[in-house]
Amino acid sequence: METILFVAHTEADGLLAKPALEALGATVELAAALGGSPFVVGLYGAQVAPAVDQLANCGAARFLGVAAGEFAQARYATDAAAVEALARAAQASIVVSADTSRVARVLPGVSHRLGGRVDTHVNSIQVEGGVLRITRWFYRQRMVAEVARTQRPWLLALDAGCHAAYQGAPGKAAVELISVALGDSHVRTKVTGTRSPGTTQQTIRPDAKLLFVAGAGWTKKQKDGQTHAKEAEQIILGFLDCSQASLGGSKSLVDLSVEGEAVLGFMSHMNQVGQTGATPRHPKGLSTCCHGEEPHVVGWRFINERRAINLDPNCGWARGKADVLYVADAFEVMRKVNEMLSGKG
Ligand SMILES: Cc1cc2nc3c(=O)[nH]c(=O)nc-3n(C[C@H](O)[C@H](O)[C@H](O)COP(=O)(O)OP(=O)(O)OC[C@H]3O[C@@H](n4cnc5c(N)ncnc54)[C@H](O)[C@@H]3O)c2cc1C
């Protein structure tokens, strides 16, 4: 019989963010698949009471909390101390959490302290014939592995977007508060501020149905021998406004933007899709003015239906990487699409 701990930090409002709720959804399912193994919710942050109420009806056997001002900010020493204390108090054999940058940073260290094993970037947690297995991708989503381990505790960090978020009704539950002794060395590091990429617009929308990818072609000389960067900006922003799609970019385009060329002001490295970029999850993707090179398309692993617009019938998309390739001028196609979406076409 496993004892499962779901562990998460609270946000500034004392509640859990979506990736944590997804990890909880997976935990509830795992507990049921293991024949009703008990599971414990462990929360840490400046305050945990609002999150305990948020999760009151999730079916947890116990709610444990580490609550103090020192646990508000992301900091290795305090986060690791909190997760370790929660795992020990729960006597957990399986620990499930969200693979956010904050959690992924401390989980391997905590695993070492507990004498356990850790797997990050977990995509699914399955039970077959009573055996727990996880899947995760390697080499930038080129290979998938199925992993089972006998070592306990086994700590798992579940990637965002891999499981439906827990959506139970809030209620009231009792929380057992655990005190974690902190010395000066725990609070030496301080977060003094946050820096966001210098974009003028919020263009990354993880929950969007469509990923719209712009490539360097938007900045190249077109058939009239001129570049049309301003028009490219208007067309792309117009489409994002109408469709609420999320914006991705190829490395070439993102590099141009960041190097200060007069291209797309709203594009940053955060938008880059691919081997050295992101692997977003969306039901559909539309690539425009992007060649479809392998190091770019490896980031499309989790885009289910792919379409591309390229002037070149021999581009990478034509070689089995897209479901549909429109050999056409993306300026013309997207201008028309925008007209149709805004009811003018
Ligand atoms: C180790 C390594 C890691 C890399 N990682 C990444 C990564 O993470 N992400 C990434 O994107 N790349 C990555 N790359 C770079 C990648 O190989 C390509 O160089 C890059 O993706 C090319 O970007 P692009 O298609 O936008 O530009 P280009 O190759 O310049 O292609 C522009 C395309 O636009 C088309 N075009 C021009 N005008 C129009 C028009 N009017 N209508 C339609 N089409 C038009 C052209 O036909 C052309 O195909 C990596 C490379 C290496 C070596």
Question: Could you characterize the architecture of this molecule?
Answer:
The mean pLDDT is 95. Helix 3 crosses helix 4 (101-114) and helix 5 (229-243) packs parallel to helix 8. The strands form 2 sheets. The protein has a 9-stranded mixed sheet, sandwiched between helices. Strands 11-10-12-13-14 form a 5-stranded parallel sheet. Strand 5 and strand 6 form a beta hairpin. It has helices at residues 18-33, 49-54, 76-90, 101-114, 229-243, 251-258, 294-297, 330-341; strands spanning 4-9, 39-45, 62-67, 94-98, 117-128, 131-138, 143-147, 154-158, 176-177, 210-214, 246-249, 282-288, 303-310, 324-327. With 345 residues, it is of the alpha/beta class. Bound molecules: flavin-adenine dinucleotide. Flavin-adenine dinucleotide binds at residues 215-217, 220, 222, 250-253, 272-277, 289-291, 293, 295-296, 299, 309-312, 315, 329-331.
In which order are the strands of the major sheet placed?
7-6-5-8-4-1-2-3-9
> What structural category arises from helix and sheet content?
alpha/beta
Helix content: 25-40%
Order of helices and strands: EHEHEHEHEEEEEEHEHEHEEH
Taking the alpha carbons of the first and last residues, their distance comes to 62 Å
Based on Cα principal axes, name the global outline.
Answer: elongated
Q: Low-confidence stretches at least 5 residues in length (pLDDT < 50)?
A: none
The total of beta strands comes to 14
Please state roughly what percent of the residues sit in beta strands, choosing from under 5%, 5-15%, 15-25%, 25-35%, 35-45% or over 45%: 15-25%
Number of helices: 8
Bound molecules: flavin-adenine dinucleotide
**Mean pLDDT across all residues, rounded?**
95
Summarize the main sheet.
9 strands, mixed
Q: What is the radius of gyration computed over CA atoms, rounded to a whole number of angstroms?
A: 23 Å
